[in-house]
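Hi, here's the filled form for the chain we discussed.

Project: internal
Contact: R.S.
Residues: 321
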Amino acid sequence: MPRVHIVSLGGTIAMTGSSGHPGVVPRLDAHDLVAAVPGLPDVAQVSAESFLRVPGAHLRVEDILDLARHLSGIEADGVVVTQGTDTIEETAFVLDLVADLPVPVVMTGAMRNPELPGADGPANLLAAVTVAADPGARGVLVVFDEQIHAARYVEKTHTSRPDAFRSPSAGPLGEVTEGEVRWLWPAPPRVVVPDVATPIPRVPMLDTWLGDDGAVLEAVLSTRPDGLVLRAMGAGHVPLALVEPLTSAAEQIPVALTSRTGSGRPYRRTYGFPGSETDLLSRGLIWGGGLAPHKLRLLLTLGLAAGWDRGQISAAISTLG
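And the returned structure, exactly as it came back:
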C-alpha cells in the first residue's frame, strides 16, 4: 500500500470555535484531521504532522520555502499538504516552482469549517490522499470537490462555495470518482527556480482604472520596489498619465504587463497608441503571458530572488504560457 504523508499548515480545514470568542480559528492539528476521515487506512499508509497552524492569509513566501526544504527530507510515495484556501493557489504555485521533488505533492483544504453543516474538509482530504497515492500523479496538484487541478492553472473563483477551485483556462487535470483517479490531461510544462535567496524581493501588484492620474503608481514607485506587476486594462492598455512613469520604472526594475480582466493573455502587437501593449512593451515592460496576475508576481519575485535577469524571466513566462 502506498505511503502518504500529511502535513498541516492550518486554515479553515483545521478551524473550530471557542467560548468567549467570535468566529473560528485554527485549532486542530494534523492528527485531528486524519482522525476525522476513517476511510484513509483503506487508501494508503498515512502518517501526519503539523508544520504550522495559521490562517491561509498569514502565510508568507518564506514559509513555503521552508516547507519545500522540509518536504525534501520526507520518505513517502506522496505528500498531502492542508492549508487555508485564501492563498492555496499561490502556495501551490510557489511549491511547483521551487520544490523539485520525486513524489507528488497534493494540496487541499476546506471551504466550510468543521462546525458547519456540509463541512467539506474530510472529503477533500480523502480525495487528496487518493490522488497522492496514485502512480499517475506528478508535480504539485490541488484537489477540491473531487477535481484535480495543476498548480499552474488553479484559481479560487468564489468566496464560499465548495466548488470554488477551478482551472478556467485549461480545465481540471483529472477527477476522483468512486475512490478512483481518472486523469483527463497530461500535466503542463514546469519551470523550476533553483537557489532562491532571502530576503524575498518586494514586488507589488497594481491595478489601473478609468481616469487613473498616476498618483498611486508614483506612490508605489517611491517605496523603491524590486519589481512591479501591472494589471492593465483590456489587452494591456493604460491611461496616458501612466506612460512616462512606467517608462522610467522599466529602466530601473522589471515591470511585468498583464491584464485585469481575469482571463486571456495580454496582446503584444495589435494596438499602437501611447499606453497600448505595443507601446509599453517597446518601453521595456515584460510581457506577462497567460499567468494569473498573482502567479506572475510570484514568478517575478522568485526569479529575482534567484538572480534571474529579464531574459530569464521572459523565457520562464513563455514556457508557462
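Let me know if anything looks off before we file it.
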